[in-house]
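PROTEIN DESIGN WORKSHEET
SECTION A - STRUCTURE
LENGTH: 240
TOKENS:
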């Protein structure tokens, strides 16, 4: 319908209903707003509107309204059945100091998601893990197993370094995340090794972009990907 109206030269404004999050409604209105803007690239305006439970439409001679109670129609009008079950694991990888935790916090502020932060995980499920490559591997696998279980309920934002190809390959034997590589020019630190992924799903350059801009771009690309993994890898290294 939107495409038809645009093709006919009409201006389109979509009202996005601010419905409560739940198993049948996994996206906030602001995530849906980002999805629409990513698809229509400025050709459609949107506005978030308060929730309601009745649609009134139609008019006879004189006047008269017909009411539809939405709880009776929810299965017919819901589009969430087209999405894959559960959530996604979005893994922010990048060297220490690249901004992973800060970006994870910003994404969680905008999304229905839970954050797994590397430092917090070391204070909980990995209190016994050191920083050798083998210990880092075990730490990352513990986080991956936890992320896999939590993703049955919602999106999971992981902010853990995952510093080597071997560790990232091991993670993918447990869960297949969307890899977001945070590129940033940092001084070398002895004992902190990091090997960037050659083909991340999303590349964000924190030498150029603010955290707010990075979060917006990541959410736009997540919206384009939907709940699926069969997408073209994308680079977001330049501000548009």
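SECTION B - SEQUENCE
RESIDUE ASSIGNMENT:
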């Amino acid at each position: 319908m939107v495409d038809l109206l645009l093709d006919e030269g009409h201006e389109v404004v979509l009202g996005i209903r601010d419905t409560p999050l739940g198993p049948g409604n996994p996206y906030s209105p602001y995530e849906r707003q980002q999805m629409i803007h990513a698809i229509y690239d400025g050709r459609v305006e949107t506005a978030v509107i308060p929730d309601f439970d009745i649609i009134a439409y139609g008019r006879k001679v004189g006047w008269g309204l017909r009411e539809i109670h939405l709880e009776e129609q929810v299965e017919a009008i819901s589009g969430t059945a087209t999405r894959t079950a559960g959530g996604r694991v979005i893994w922010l990888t990048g060297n220490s100091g690249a901004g992973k935790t800060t970006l994870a916090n910003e994404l969680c502020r905008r999304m229905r998601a839970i954050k797994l932060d590397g430092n917090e995980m070391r204070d909980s499920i990995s209190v016994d893990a050191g920083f050798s490559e083998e210990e880092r591997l075990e730490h990352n696998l513990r986080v991956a197993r936890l992320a896999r279980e939590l993703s049955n309920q919602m999106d999971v934002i992981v902010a853990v370094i995952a510093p080597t190809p071997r560790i990232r390959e091991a993670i993918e034997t447990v869960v297949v995340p969307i890899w977001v590589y945070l590129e940033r020019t940092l001084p070398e630190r002895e004992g902190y090794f990091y090997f960037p992924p050659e083909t991340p799903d999303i590349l964000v350059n924190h030498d150029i972009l603010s955290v707010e801009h990075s979060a917006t771009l990541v959410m736009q690309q997540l919206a384009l990907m939907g709940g699926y993994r069969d997408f073209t890898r994308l680079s977001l290294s330049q501000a548009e």
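SECTION C - NOTES
The domain at 89-236 is CATH 3.40.50.300 (Rossmann fold).
Residues 72-85, 227-240 have pLDDT under 50 and may be disordered.
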